[in-house]
Design a protein that fits this description.
Two copies of one chain form a homodimer. Helix content of chain A is about 15%, strand content about 35%. Chain A has four helices and eight strands, in the order ααββαββββββα. In chain A, the strands form three sheets. A four-stranded mixed β-sheet of chain A has the order 2-1-6-5, covered by helices on one side. The first copy, chain A, has a two-stranded antiparallel ribbon with strand order 3-4. Strand 7 of chain A pairs antiparallel with strand 5 of chain B.
Chain lengths: ~140, ~140
């Protein structure tokens, strides 16, 4: 157990089973509709910041840095609840998605494709042109 | 592109971005209520079998083998839809949870703890004693 964490009341962070890379998968779910909007990864700092600010902060594995969701797009995620699974290796964020768009493609959810007749078929429209979101 | 896969009409499996270990995270969501029940991992064979049988088959990273969900417990998951995210590296299974219990602790969902006042607090009851489930 990390003594610094204990002092700061962060024992709950120690209970998470981080991967060997120090990450945990985080599923963002619309708190009202139950729709799953995205899955991303968090490191310890991201999860701590998410809890402290009640706003989703992920860790970008490609950019190797903290990724405050909505930083560029304004599509921030207000966090209402953080849940942990039985194995302590996955978290859910129950969120309110500001702007109604979680996906960088301009859709509500990143899960916009379904397997139909042996093909991934797009099931929902782009709500806003990404060029308009990330200008 | 894998020619064998093309012949068998399995191009959709090639579109998934597998981890370096050949896995993809799979989120099981109750198709009716929207509740997230669990997250586990699948290898290529598990995802193919899940699609073919419309019943969830995961890959157990600890046991290093296919894990047909409900094999011991009878709590199988009937799959109604398989969704893929924008990065093609996470899938959702929309399922009907037979027996109403997804978690090995005997709860409906593996996500039964919420972060409240700096602690992971259990929010829901055990529906069935695991000793009764796995006897």
């Amino acid at each position: 157990m990390n003594t610094e964490a204990q002092k700061a009341g962060l024992d709950w962070l120690e209970e998470v089973k981080w991967t060997s890379d120090g990450l945990v998968p985080a599923i963002a779910q619309d708190a009202e509709t139950g729709r799953i909007l995205m899955m991303a990864w968090m490191n310890r700092e991201a999860l701590q910041l998410t809890a402290e600010t009640q706003t989703a902060v992920y860790y970008s594995r490609s950019r190797k840095k903290l990724w405050p969701k909505g930083e560029s797009s304004g599509h921030v995620q207000k966090v209402q609840d953080i849940q942990l699974d039985c194995d302590a290796d996955v978290v859910i964020l129950k969120i309110e998605q500001i702007g109604g768009i979680a996906c960088h493609t301009g859709r509500e959810s990143c899960f916009y494709r379904s397997l139909v007749d042996g093909q991934w078929q797009t099931q929902e429209p782009v709500l806003k042109d990404p060029a308009e979101i990330y200008k």
